[in-house]
Amino acid sequence: MRYHSSLPGFDLPGGWELSRKGHDHLSDLGVLKNAPNIDKVATDFRAEALKIKDPQTRTFVEEAIACFEYDLFRSAIVMSWLSAVDVLHAFVVAGHLRDFNIQATKDAAKKNQFWKIARTTDDLGLMKESEFIETLYKISVIGKNVRDELQLCLKRRNGCGHPNSLKLRDNTAAAHLEILILNVFVKFA
Questions:
Q1: What's the average pLDDT block by block, 10 residues per block, for the chain (189 residues)?
Q2: What is the C-alpha to C-alpha distance for residues 181 and 177, in angstroms, rounded to an integer?
Q3: Does the reported pTM lie above 0.85?
Q4: Which of 137, 125, 141 has its CA nearest to residue 89?
């Protein structure tokens, strides 16, 4: 992890670089009070991940956290999103498939589209993820604020999952992981 400054007079084109060890030392001294500490954030996430009942889901979340720890922020965002959608698909199939299909059929009719009745998680995967989230909201599986946050996570995942000029760091990835862990994995897995 490198931190850049635009301070003049240093050899590097972007200013100076601070290693993680240097960053941690300055944080311990109180100089960087608001600076993120990836190890602490990851430890907090791992504690939340332990609350996830399904071992396969927990493994996926731990992989996303490992990506976060190694500064692979795009990978952490993509991996955590894929896992969250898988958890939500399984939750719907396990107990809300009838209500989901009724709502999805109504919504498709309004748009002059055809919705094939879902029977499996693979069938649910045929729906656009944004429509899937909206349908979860309409059948009261998730509330309005969770829906809004999941839509933002989906947009972030799309930005990270395709080549583009989007830049992000640990704070963005941490917020993304936190939303999914607290609102999907702990609740539905």
A1: 42 58 68 61 84 85 90 94 94 96 92 88 94 97 98 97 92 93 90
A2: 6
A3: no
A4: 125
